[in-house]
Structure formats: structure tokens, C-alpha cells
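Assemble and predict.
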Amino acid sequence: MFQKTSRRKAEMIKIEHLTKTFNSIKAVDDISLEIEKGEIFGFLGPNGAGKTTTISMISGLLKPDSGKIHVDSMDLESNLRKIKKIMGVVPQDMAFYEELSAKENLLFWGRLQGVSRKNLEERIQSYLEATGLLGREKEPLKKYSGGMKRRINLVIGLIHQPKLLLLDEPTIGIDVQTKLNIFKLIKEASSRGTTILYTTHNLMEAEELCHRIAIMDNGKILALGTLEELIQIVGEKDIIIISGRFSVDQGRKITSLFKEATVLSLKEGKIILSLEASKKMPLLLEEFFRQGISINDVSIKQPNLESVFLKLTGKELRE
Amino acid sequence: MNNIFHLIQKDFKRKWKNPVVILGFLLIPVVFTIIFGIVFGSSEEQTLPQVPILAVDKDKSFLTQFFLTALNQGELKKLVSLKVVEEEEGRRLLDKGKASALMIMPENFTEDVWNHRSAEILLLKNPAEQFLPQIAEEIVDTASLLFSALFSVFNNEVSLIQAFMEKGEFLDRDISTLSIQIKNRLEGIAKFVFPPVISLKQETLSKKKEEAGPSLTVQGYILPAMAIMFLLFICNIVFEDILREKETGTLRRMSVSPLKLSEFIWSKTITSALIGMICTFVLVVLGIVLFSIQWGDLFIVFLIVLCLNIMLAGFISLIYSFIHTERQAGAALSSVIIVMSMLGGSMIPVENFPPLVQQISKITLNYWGLKAFHKAIQRAPFQEMAPILVGMLAAGIVFSVAGSFFLKSNLRKGLIR
């Protein structure tokens, strides 16, 4: 049984002061973290936050400008080949051969990872069963639906049962059923002891899957912890988003009247602030109306990952 | 090594499932060979086509009739197709390209000849043709020369004939005098002419086939020439996959597996050489079955196919070191292959080039591949073949090693997105 709160001690990944710059833009800016063995660790952040760059450096595709990466107590730079043997990577792209069948693909990728033919046959059978693709294994992948392809994309990363699995947004553009199937496979791998590094910009996925989450933006880790630990960052306050016809000056003037309020983001027609909604909301709205401002929309977010993200970055994840 | 094997196996499966392009490139040399065979014929001894000559006889006299009849008899009849027409029609037919030349015998031709005045035959040549009008000119020129010589030698006899014709009567006494005179003249000449001091003995090389080995047929030239050109295109198809794998992310995925990038590149080079070898063997068999090409010693042919395909695959791998996109590959590779094939004899026999271009041909892969095949067909001894085979193999190895080195650095750059 998958237990989200289970935590182990030994570390699988240790990152120290990792930095990567592309054309003077810091894609990853001095990040440090440790991921424990068997943990599902989430990198949460919008596009361009630095998640994929971090994963690319951990997988050895990119060389960091500075900093150190250790995987399973081995220095990545000097033990890359050894580390690649214990690592599985599931990229965002559907990286397989569409003209080959599911079985031919899995056989190829498995053999490339050094799995014996006999073990492969057994594993392929069990993974095809787990993904509901048994019976269609001889069809070329180009005949598969998007969801089926996503499942095979994941299984290719799992076929050699790696100690460390790097998943780069593996659920983009798929239906709920496929997403649940993918989650099931990830949780099963975790329960077998596989450490999973999962990047996403989907809050719900991070909440549901990950033991710990690092919130990333602009190449930096803004916060890191369990869901409960992260929610504490917001404290008792709610996140309030007000949209209407007001200028930046008007917004600033109104919020200055509430000393407990923390403005997270303010632009023309939209303000995001952190405030105890149950106590202060009526007064806040009254102030807007008194100024003759018409309000189009008001939303209050209870302390959750989204409100944490809003508080930390001042923007909604979908922006 | 295991990884290379898995990669080759995977690529073969992929090509097997989508063989259309390779089959297309395989069939083109066969089609070309069939077409060239039809156009140029397949027999080793080629005969010249008849030269169509139109003749206008404005004089309509004894001598013009004699001249035209002479052109239309014996060996000349095999060479010339003579048709007497009116001048207007003759010019019209020549304009339409229905003849290689139009010969106009002028008025008073006979009279001029009787009176030892210069008589001119006008020859109009078809400007649209290259060789046949030249042959027509040579034939008419030679006939005119012989005709003039004949008149000089038999000058007295011709005068007698002229007198008879002017009188309009042929008396038995005169004819017997003329006959005796001609006989004496011929006997006098015979001392000098028979037996001839210089004689021509004709012999075609094909009669010595057993000793010199078979000569090169049209198909024996065209099939290997086209095959080498299209083998380069087939190699290109395999290497194009590298760009596709870069694009679809499979190469990135492989790069995070224990696979070495050099193993990936070598797998492509070996796959390319193997597919090339299979295609060449298919073409060799088709050459035997469809065109009766006698390739020579099969072991030598195997060595040629092996060395040739290693060289071609290595060369394409090296070219791909400088290519980053499919568009670049399409433009650059096609240009390189076509220019190299043209210079190397895949389109035009190298012997037809000026000396400088013939020297340039020697730096093309097509030249050496073609030379090896032609020597095999002509049953050249192994000592003659060995340097070509070693050269092709060495070039292949050098190209492949250099290609692996440069292509690796090219691909590394492409993996970062």
C-alpha cells in the first residue's frame, strides 16, 4: 500500500549549489536539496521555472556551471555511466519508435538498459497488464491513442526497475483514466523502493503524489517541504483574489488600510493578497465599493498548495 | 558491442516495416539499366544505324544516275539509305529532320564531267544531328573522289563513250575496240593494284573473348554506375534517422541510458553499410537474371560489395558531422551525391571527360567503386583488384573514424534544448 507520509533516511540525491546559465539567463540559480531513498519528490513550478534543466543536469544530459550532484552516494560527474544504469528517465516528449510495436519498443529499451531477455519478457507482460495494453502489444505505437502512448512512455522508463526515476511532466495532455493509471504505476514503483523525482506544474498532482515538494520559480527553490509544512508558510491567512475596474494606485490605497494584509501581486484590475478572509473580507469589499469601484470577481483560496504558490510567487501557476 | 547489436537490430526492424524508400532507390538503377539497354542495345558488337540521305538529281543524266546507283549498292547500301526526291521536297524533309543530309546533283553535271570542267555536288547537312551528317559528308566526299579518279584513269575510254553517245549509235566494231581498250587498261592497272600491297584484315575483339575476358556491355556499365549513386542515397536514408531521432527525443532518451554516443553512431554506420550490402547483392542478382551480366569471381564481387559499402557509409557519416537539420541534409547530400556521381562516371563514362576532369574523377567514390566492378566483369587478376579494394576499405575506415568523432560532437550540441 502506498503511504504518502512514509519517509526514509538514506539520501538518493544530494544537490549542492547547482547553477546553470543559458545566454546570461540563470535557468537554475544556486539550488541545494536532498532527496531520500524511496521518496516521491516533486518539483512544482511554472514553465521556465528551471525544473527540466535541473532534471537534465541530474540525468547527465547537461553539465552544471557550478555545484555538485551526488546520486546514490556517487559523484555524478565521475560515475555517470554507473549512475545511468540505476536511473530511469521519462521525458516530456513521447520518446520511442512509433513504427515499432509496444513490445518491440520495450524489448529494445530494456535491452539497452542491460535487462536480460527472460526478465524482460516477464516484465513486459506484467507492465502491459498493469497499463491495460495487453493484447495490443503487437500493434505499432503510431496506432495508439495519446493516453496509451503516455503509458508506454512511462513503462519504458520503468522497464529496468531503476533505483531512481526522473519524471518530467509525464501527464501532459492526457485523460483522467490514463492519469490515474500513471499514478498507480508511479506509486507501485515507489512502494518497491524506487526514488521518484517528479516535475509538474499541476498542483493537484503534486499534492496527491509527492511526499515532499520544492516550489521553483525563476531557477530558484522558493520553498521545500511536505504539503503540511508548505501550507504553514501561508499560516492562518487566506489568499484573496479580487478582479475589477481599479487602477494600481486605487488598489494600493485600499490595501494600505489593512495592516494585516500582505499584497502578493497588484496590477491594474487585479489584486492578490493574503488576509484572514472570515474577519476582514466584508471590510475590504466595503472599501472597494466606497471608492466607487465595481468588482467583477472575488475568490478566496483556503490554505493549500495553490495558496502557498501564490504567496511565494505572487502569481497563479497557470499564468 | 551488445548495445550496437541491439541498435542495429532495432534499425533493421524499422526499415523492414517501412521499406518503400529503400526499395524505390533499389529499383531506380534497374529501371535506368533497362532504359539504357533499350536505347543503346545490349549486344557487344554494335552496328551503326543507316544514314538517311536525300538526293536531288537536277541533271537526270547518265553520270548522275551512275553516281546515285553506286551509292545505293553493295556495302554502301548497308550504310546509306538513299532516296531521290525533288529539291523542294528534299529541303522540306531536311527541315523536318527526316534525313541527315540532302545531296544536290547540279544541272549539266555530266556535260561538265565530259568536258573536264569542275562539277560541284552540293551537300546540305541536318544541323540538329551530330554524327550522322558527318558520316554522310564522308561518304559523299569519298564517292566523289573515287568518281574523279575513275574518270582520270579511264580518260580515253570515257572520251570514246562520250563520242558514241553524241553520235547516238553503238557500232559493234566501236564497242569491241572500246572493250579491248578497257581490258588492256585494266590489265595495265592490275599489275599495280593486284595483289594489293596493303590489305585490311578485319577481326572483332569478341572473337578473343576466351583470352581477354568479357567486354563491358551497356548494362554491365550502367547497372553498377547507377547502383553506386543510389547506394549513396540509401546510406543517406539511414543517417537521416539520426536527425529524426534527435528531433523525436529518442536520442536524448538513449543518452540518459548506459549507451555511449559513439556506439549509437557506429550502429548507424554499420546499419548503413549492411543495408547497402544487401541492396548491392540484390542488384548483382538482378544484373545476372535480367541483364545476363557476368560479374566475374563471386568472391571478388563480395569483397567489392563489402569494401564499397564500408566506404560509402563512412563517407556519409562524415558528411553528417556538418549537418544539423533534415533540410540541410536534403540539400547538401543530394548536391554532393549528384556532383560526385557525375564526376565519378555514374552518369557519363569518365573516358569522355577532358584530362583534367578525369583526374578530378579519381577523388570520387563512384570512380573507384565503378572501376572495381568493371575490372571484376573484365576478369582482371586479383593483383590488379587488390589495391582498389584496399583503398576503398582504408578510405571507409578513415571516413568512419573521422565521422564518429565529428558527428559525436555535433550530436552533443543538439541534445541540449
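Chain B has three domains: 2-43+215-415, 48-153, 157-192.
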